[in-house]
TrEMBL record:
One of its GO terms (molecular function) is glycosyltransferase activity. CDD domains: GT4_PimA-like. Residues 30-178 form the Glycosyltransferase subfamily 4-like N-terminal domain. The lineage of its organism: Bacteria, Bacillati, Bacillota, Bacilli, Bacillales. This is Uncharacterized protein. It comes from Paenibacillus oryzisoli. It holds the Pfam family Glyco_transf_4. Residues 192-368 form the Glycosyl transferase family domain. Gene3D superfamilies: Glycogen Phosphorylase B. InterPro entries: Glyco_trans_1, Glyco_trans_4-like_N, Glycosyltransferase_grp1.
């Protein structure tokens, strides 16, 4: 990707949204992706991550070779001002902005010679009410490259801003395969057995959901589907891991509705409030089937990859970028969101009744992750792009 910029160095500065501290066990997937990508990239180029400071964090620190610099968060304008002061001290060659196109014009004006990269994680911040089509177009003019995590998101953005199409590149996300390990190995089986014993579910067949408890995630449809599942598989139990907000167990109106709906199948649904991401691998290992019943387009769906890395077959909605992750009939099943409850129950039952099928699809998922969705591969692709862009300016 050609650029006319004249960067001052090969230092990569990553600007996080400011919504959550980084690193943090109670952040969104954006901060988790930044942390893992930065740790892989730092062996190839100097990396500095800029973000919001939590009360328990130092202003500066180095973790796994990555330099973290933190600033207070007092609203978007003040945050960008603090971030800009940090960037001025660092003289980066590349400024990578995470999921906030509105940051771009200010940074372009202040650093006209730096390579400006926008990394998009979802449709949320390129759509109303966050941003108008006109403002988005103006923001994207400032970017030298726009990196998205799926072809779905690429096409979505191309339709919105055709003039930016030549800048958009798809880079898939990854998963930490040292943390999310196969449940089919001896070690994995031991960990799974211990966790299931702790939860007193040794004799149950576990359907697992992990994610935010918001209507778009479709958990209400999954609870309805469970009513049909338990008629034919009484040992089935749905474990719902998550809450309405990141890092909070706050009970919203929608969460209350889910709890009420679950009472109709008492003993077959368990709610587990927000779990830190570091704890997630042991929860995924207990699952026989992993379900992602989203009813709104998801750009990628990192939880699908985490389940596949663990060897758990996935039943997910046939929407958005999920279709690029889950191979229908090979690593799990994709269901029609227009007939979601009937198709969910059918596919869940098919898997619960057949352990050999669960293992086959699970092991196919592990292979697919190794081929496409590791952080090492994600970093290799990103580093190659940035090296090429810097090479054109004789900085590599």
């Amino acid at each position: 990707m050609k650029t006319k910029r004249k960067p001052q160095s090969n230092v990569l500065v990553i600007v996080t949204p400011g919504s959550f501290p980084i690193p943090s066990g109670s952040s969104s997937s954006v901060e988790q992706v930044v942390e893992k990508t930065a740790e892989q990239l730092v062996s190839r180029m100097p990396v500095v991550v800029l973000g919001r400071k939590a009360s328990y964090q130092p202003w500066k620190e180095i973790r796994h070779g990555v330099s973290y610099r933190r600033v207070p968060y007092q609203g978007r304008s003040a945050y960008i001002s603090h971030i800009s002061k940090q960037i001025s001290q660092l003289h980066p060659g590349i400024i990578q902005v995470e999921n906030r196109p509105l940051f771009l014009p200010v940074l372009r004006k202040r650093y006209p010679q730096g390579i400006l990269s926008l990394v998009l994680h979802s449709t949320s911040f390129i759509s109303p009410p966050y941003i108008s089509k006109r403002t988005l177009r103006l923001c994207l003019l400032a970017a030298d490259v726009i990196i998205v995590n799926s072809h779905f998101l690429k096409q979505f953005l191309q339709r919105k801003v055709p003039s930016a199409a030549h800048k958009i590149i798809t880079h898939y996300l990854g998963v930490d395969v040292s943390a999310f390990t196969s449940k089919w190995t001896g070690e994995g089986l031991k960990a799974r057995t211990e966790m299931r014993k702790q939860l007193n579910i040794e004799q149950r067949k576990i359907i697992l959901f992990v994610g935010r408890l918001i209507p778009q995630k479709g958990v209400h449809h999954l609870i309805e589907a469970m009513k049909q599942v338990i008629k034919r598989e009484p040992s089935a139990k749905l474990v719902i891991v998550g809450s309405a907000y990141y890092g909070s167990a706050k009970v919203t109106k929608y969460v209350k509705q889910l709890i009420q709906a679950a009472k109709a199948i008492h003993g077959h649904v368990t709610f587990i409030p927000y779990v830190r991401h570091q704890e997630m691998p042991k929860w995924v290992q207990i699952a026989d089937v992993f379900v992602v019943p989203s009813i709104c387009n998801e750009a990628f769906g990192l939880v699908n990859v985490e389940a596949m890395a663990t060897g758990v077959p996935v039943v997910a909605s046939r929407i958005g970028g999920i279709q690029e992750v889950v191979e229908d009939g090979k690593t799990g099943y994709l269901v029609d969101p227009k007939a979601i409850e009937s198709e969910l129950s059918e596919r869940i039952l098919q898997l619960l009744k057949d352990e050999s099928l669960r293992r086959k699809l699970g092991e196919n998922g592990i292979k697919r992750v190794d081929e496409l969705f590791t952080w090492q591969k994600a970093a290799e692709v990103r580093a190659s792009l940035y090296s090429q862009m810097l090479k054109e300016t004789a900085l590599v």
